[in-house]
Amino acid sequence: MGIGKLFINVTLAASTVIAGPASAFEVYGFIPYQSRFENDTIVKGAPDQTWFMRLGIKPIHVVYDNKILVFPRSKNSKNNGRLSGEKVRDVAKSSRDMQVDLVSLDMESWDRFDFDTPDKLIEAITLYRSAHPEAVVGVYATVPQNTYAWSEAKVKQYDEINARYSKVADAVDYFSPSLYNYNGADFSQWLEGAKYNIDAARRYSRSKKIYPYITPEVRVGRATRWLSYDEMAERLQALRELGADGCIVWASSRSRDSSGEAPVLDPAKGWLKAVSDAAMTRDGKSDSAPVDH
């Protein structure tokens, strides 16, 4: 995950996210791009909260671990990062001030194969929740664990590591597996990974909501290309049909196309229109069609 900021005011009353009707598909967004189209004109600067809310995209506070950990000066400094109560309180205060209660902790510095990591994650969740009792807390790509580029041959390995994180699954309020485009734009491989991850989340709990992380970005060498309307729409429809309660759309502030240009958000076409259509409809079908792909 890249680093960027996008916080939009929203208040969630529940402290635990409980699964609702299958038709309710909630879309959250962490999309820190710095320009967008408005009335066919490119406007520089990150969109404000109202702009995304008009598209049906709700806010989420993605908390990167460097915001709540302190790292020693040692060879294995990342895995030895320690929680800072002061930093946690500062981050929690910023969430409360902005009335953002849906929180996703991204704790990738800790070695996921280290047997001490699950307990450290539970400590992080507990500490954050103590500083922000209203928070609805999940952990990025942890329960279930990230499968990266899908491989059927590794299912046993996936199952084994997921079992080690069962107590973390008990501690979170919702599940957010990572379903990025690890196999490029290959939808069939993406779908196999989605099936496994959503089923793995459901095995932890059938009552907690599942909000997979997805992205419009596809790496092509050192550059990025963006999914078309149809490519994004088929992913969103698949998530709905697989029983996900919604999704978290993530993007990187560092992404550039093959010409070195930064992306421009365009709600009238492409992947962003597909996301908005999914967010604004309850049955997965939209009356509107893409302007172009």
Automatic annotation (TrEMBL):
UniProt-listed InterPro entries: Aldolase_TIM (IPR013785)
Superkingdom of source: Bacteria
Protein name per UniProt: GH18 domain-containing protein
